[in-house]
Amino acid sequence: MGQRDLSGLAGLILAGGEGSRFGGPKAWAGLPDGRTFLEACCACLRDGGAVRVAATLPPESPDPGLAGLQLLALPAPGLDMFGSLKIGLGHLIQSEDWERLAVLPVDHPLVRPDSVRALAAAGGRAVIPSYRGKHGHPICFDREVATSIVCGDLTGPTLRQVLREVGAVDLEVDDSGVTANCNTPAALSAALSAANYEL
After folding, report:
1. pLDDT averaged per 10 residues in sequence order, the chain, 199 residues
2. Quick one: pLDDT at residue 195?
């Protein structure tokens, strides 16, 4: 695959869910090193080369005080992921300093920055990471795809459908974090144990 310039990478953290299975919004769930999921995701994208990072959050969420993170409060609770994605993209496409975008759900806080860099550098309109043959996150796609979603040319109704329509390619990475969906405390514990993370 061809290589891309990482200077034009943006990041979007999808953190608008109510986190009913985690006991509250997962943006504020904690890791063993004291960071929240939101902090870890923001650091991953920044360290992975993103020049701009935004996060969708539930309505009336507190400001986490993370430098450089643009907060996008959703208009109402219960918005589905694709609706949250469109709001985030609608904000980000107003800025012209990026050509590639990494979309990271907040319940994937164990992704390594090297994986973000590899996805951003890969060719193709959209790239999906995989670990040992299993698809994961973040998804990376170009500005044209983002604009088409916002404008309604790519209607979904899911990101999976959009990725199918644009011919997303797979990229195998050596990072179990991309498939570690930490959507419950038990899932987080299992992911930390399986990967032997030093947090």
Report:
1. 61 88 85 95 97 94 90 89 95 95 97 97 94 96 96 92 96 96 92 69
2. 67
Is position 143 within any domain? Answer: yes
* 181 located within any domain: yes
Into how many domains does the chain fold?
A: 1
C-alpha torsion sign, points 3, 88, 159, 161: negative
Whether 67 maps to a domain, the answer reads yes
Domain contains 1 = no
User: 7: which DSSP letter?
Assistant: G
Amino acid at 70: Q
* Peptide linkage before 157 cis (omega within 30 of 0): yes
Tell me if residue 122 falls in helix, strand or coil: coil
- Residue that has been written with the tokens 């990376």 in this structure: 140
